[in-house]
Amino acid sequence: MMTADENSLPRLRWRCRRGMRELDQVLERYLDHAWGDADSAERATFLRLLDCEDPVLWPWFVGRERPEDPAMDALVQKIRNAGPRG
Fold first, then answer.
1. Which are the contacts of 56, defined by CB distance < 8 A and separation ≥ 6?
2. pLDDT, tens digit, for every residue of 54-77?
3. What is the CATH number of the domain that holds 34?
């Protein structure tokens, strides 16, 4: 179980930094617009998502593949459907 400090926004923002700028933007957009309203189950799923490697994440976010885990798939689809906000 993560401590409150490990779930702080600055630490989560750091964890959203990836090897691909496109993934950075997608993950940070979720953090900025949805994390605050997310329930504990969705937050736990997002933390698991951050543990995934970029080559796994990228096909999910561009729609070439889908996660097998239903909760992970639902979150990826939520993030994808939110799209960029200007």
1. none
2. 999 999 999 999 999 999 999 999
3. 1.10.150.250
Q: Angle at CA 56, nearest 5°, toward 50 and 62?
A: 100
In the chain, how many domains are there?
A: 1
Host domain of residue 35? 19-82
3-class DSSP assignment, residue 28: helix
Provide the whole-model pTM. 0.87
What is the token pair recorded at 7?
Answer: 């779930």
> Is residue 25 within 8 Å of 31, Cβ to Cβ?
no
The torsion angles phi and psi of 30, rounded to 5 degrees, stand at -60, -45
Whether residue 14 is contained in a domain is answered as no
